Amino acid sequence: MKGFPAAARETLRDSQLRRNLGKATTTIRAKRLNTIAELDDWEALRAAGSAIKARAMATLPEQLEQLEAAVTAAGGTVHWARDAAEANRIVATVAKAHGSDEVIKVKSLATDEIGLNEALAEQGIQAIETDLAELIVQLDPNDRQSHILVPAIHKNRAEIRALFERTIAKGQDLGWEATAIAEAARRHLRAKFLSVPVAVSGANFGIAETGTICVVESEGNGRMCTTLPSVLVTVMGIEKVLPQWQDLEVFLQLLPRSSTAERMNPYTSLWTGVRDDDGPREFHLVLLDNGRTEVLRDEVGRQALHCIRCSACLNVCPVYSRTGGQAYESVYPGPIGAILTPQLKGLDAAPTLPWASSLCGACYEACPVKIDIPSVLIHLRARVVREEKSRWEPERLAMDAVGGVFASRKRYETAQRLSKLGRGPLSKLPVPGWTAMRELPEVPEQTFREWWRERGAR
Amino acid sequence: MSAARAEVLGRIRSALGEAPVVPDVARDYHPAGTAGVDLDLFCERVADYRATVYRVAAGELDAALAEAATRLGLSRVGTTLDVQLGDAVELVRDEPPLSIADLDGLDGVLTGCALGIADTGTLVLDGVGGSGRRALTLVPDVHLCVIVEDQVVASVPDAVAALADAAAEGRPITLVSGPSATSDIELDRVEGVHGPRTLEVFVVG
């Protein structure tokens, strides 16, 4: 990990990336506003979405136990994974039990987070990504995901075309139409969908009441993976549980409009355990912790678990739309990543991310479940300073000094007088890390307090 | 009880503390049963996602379907419906269930559905009756879908309420809004990836 400032400095130098991102995020911003404007109850839906998630988290043990019981009753098998290694072992064991050296995958951030593809490869099992953007990233050995929804957002049409003509459509001329690029992906994956016996998916929602798992997608690769193979393994973060079936009426409105700015995404699959003559004969649900219970421990930070992975906060963020996702060095980039990654992995693993924001608040306004990202960022900044930085860090020493001065009127006024002479804790002394990027204001001839006293005397 | 299960549940309980505050959920949005159905809106929004929409009277349905089959060059069509499409089209029933290879050999599929959602232009398949099983409407490249006027509901909450029994029974439910598409190239929706690339919807009534 380089840390956000160093990583961002690198990505900002890539002018093609900035153009691609600027174009994509600007387009989607305008479209999102149009689609949500169609619903006059949007704010009420956001409030309900936020409350449902908060309720689900507050009752999480009961919700997960109910989900487990419902899935099991419907013929599924539920596994619990404390961490990434345990989840990866469970998936590999299922794949091996069916003698498969390939699995087909629906795009899933949870499986990216736990490094499932790499773990399976070590066991001699190849994971084939079937989502177009994931496929694009997988085909380029030097590439990494840069967006929650469209992991290859940093690549434009011409770059994708060139990559495909080098790899899955060798020797073909795909032309400039996006449909020809989509067609090449269809031809490449078709045989895999029809023949690979084991699939792995994530989950957008798991309904405790009915045991129903929900995957929201566009291309049909999700339907293929959750329908055709004889075995399906779903890796679901424990925070994805929704208490009631009825809760879907809120989230199926919030999610598509916030993510792709569609009234509804092309395909939503809902399944419950296994079904005779319809879909997989074996269904495994892996409930994943991997740091989520640590996030839950923080009363301010736990709202990051409400995230439904729509990516609206990325698309509106002035920082993300310039640096791109790779600067965040995590599968969760952008504003939500800046609060989720340090909490999931530990503050010491990503201590710079809470500062990867201008605190403008656009993310909070766009979030369909009203996660107050700016407040969590400030809370995490304080935690990093308290828990991670040494007592002798210059910034902390400076803040301690200023804090002491602000605590007493006498000391404050003395400091003000000193600063006019260019001395003392309020003067324009360089503070490492602060003054590199910030201008301190000129010290005025007269302080407000002096002016007020003079005015009172009149 | 597995060790992992006990440990994860224990961590959650410890993180939440003694008596976590459980917030109420205010459902102040438009609930199910409050909006009237606008059939024109349904047709418009289905078409908005590049599905082709035909409005036909009950007596004209077979002829409209036969015409579509000819126009799209479909000679072998899987179906769940009792329709007559003439001699040019071979109708194949999914009973007993067709193999994946057989499904892949079909030119198209003709089904009904459970309901439609006007607000979002969505068709809902629920795994029984006219909807058929999931693979049937997934593998063939052309999907002709018949919906009767009174199957259309106004909103997403209406649809979720209407599907509560199907969910409780564990029926697989698929929401379809337009043909297969992707937003992965420059965040722009383009049609045609893995699901049926042609979706034609026949609204009867």
Describe it:
The complex is a heterodimer of chains A (458) and B (205). Chain A is α/β, with parallel strands linked by helices. Chain A folds into 3 domains: 39-290, NagB/RpiA/CoA transferase-like (Rossmann fold), CATH 3.40.50.10420; 293-388, Alpha-helical ferredoxin (Fumarate Reductase Iron-sulfur Protein, Chain B, domain 2), CATH 1.10.1060; 397-457, no CATH class. Chain A is built from 21 helices and 10 strands. Chain A has helices at residues 4-12, 15-37, 42-58, 60-73, 84-97, 109-113, 116-122, 132-139, 157-166, 178-195, 221-227, 248-259, 292-297, 312-316, 320-323, 334-345, 362-366, 373-388, 394-407, 409-420, 448-457; strands at residues 77-81, 102-105, 126-129, 198-201, 205-207, 212-217, 231-237, 241-242, 267-272, 282-288. Chain A is globular. Chain B is α/β, with parallel strands linked by helices and 205 residues long. Chain B has a single domain, classed as 3-Layer(aba) Sandwich (Rossmann fold), CATH 3.40.50. Chain B has helices at residues 3-16, 39-48, 61-72, 100-104, 156-162, 164-168, and strands at 52-56, 76-79, 90-93, 108-111, 115-117, 122-125, 142-148, 152-153, 173-176, 181-185, 188-191, 198-204. Chain B has a 6-stranded parallel beta sheet, sandwiched between helices. In chain B, strands 8-5-6-9 form a 4-stranded mixed beta sheet. Chain B has a two-stranded antiparallel ribbon with strand order 10-11. The radius of gyration of chain B is 21 Å and the shape is globular. Chains A and B meet through helix 2, helix 3, helix 4, strand 1 and helix 8 of A and helix 1, helix 4, helix 5, helix 6 and strand 9 of B. Strand 9 (267-272) of chain A pairs antiparallel with strand 9 (173-176) of chain B, so a sheet runs across the interface.
